[in-house]
Amino acid sequence: MEKPNTIKTILVAIDFTEKTDSATILAVHMARRHNARIILFHNVMNFFIIDRTGRQIVGEDTVNKQHAESENSLEHIKNSLQQSYNDITFIKKIGVDTITNSINKIVEEESVDIVITGTSGKQGLRELILGSSSYQILKGVNCSVLMMPEGCKKYKFEKILVPVRVLEKLREKMEISKLIAEKNKGFISLFGISGDENFTSIRKAFIKIRDSLKGSETEHYASFTVSSDKAVEISNASKDAKFDLIILNYQDEESWKSFFSENFFKQIINNTSVPLLFFKNGDAPAQDPEPTGYDITLPFPG
């Protein structure tokens, strides 16, 4: 059964760094526009070893201390936000599993519609190997994900870029796009883009959506281009017209590229400085599960 096109529960991932400040403020603005509640979420990473007796927690006292400190910090943030925005319901949640497993559990229990995560754009060696937490959230969470760049101040989405580049869940994505445009009193710029492959089907889908928008109350513009570098074209379009939000289907491209190359997701994230909403309808399976803590396997004695 499909979920209705509403945003009633927003989860914002908080890691107590500056990159989540903008994400939290964005969650507040969206919650007010959509009359939604906010779940403030933080995940506590466990550290463990594996020996012949099975998994054992390393430094349990340290883990318990970290959990208590996180609980207190999250409670402080919740109380501060509740005092400033008493018209919004705030809930705090702490996860102790992998970050994606923890979020997915809350998504199911609390019927979360969208997860907001901050991105810093700074990729160190560990992030290159294991993947940043925001990228893990994008790949593994079973609902739509909004990635908010650190320091971004775009909290109202008056100019919304909606690319038509793939056919999967296109109608559903357009419905949520129209909802967001309505709540922000904004307009949609429909941007059809296709390479040589699937040109005819993409073009037909673009024309169909463009015609449907003509019969709606949603203010809109439409254009179409042919390019094999879709991420670059979308990034350039967003910069040229200074859009406030880009809404994309959750469907990767060029995932065959080597480990050190950028697929579509990484290209668009690394080359844009505006919020990115990746639409999922909840039936996409989780991908790329990350390890829980650091796994040190001890040799079998003897």
UniProtKB/TrEMBL annotation:
CDD domains: USP-like
Pfam families: Usp
UspA domain sequence ranges: 7-148
Top-rank taxon: Bacteria
Family affiliation: Belongs to the universal stress protein A family.
Protein name, UniProt field: Nucleotide-binding universal stress protein, UspA family
Lineage: Bacteria, Pseudomonadati, Bacteroidota, Flavobacteriia, Flavobacteriales
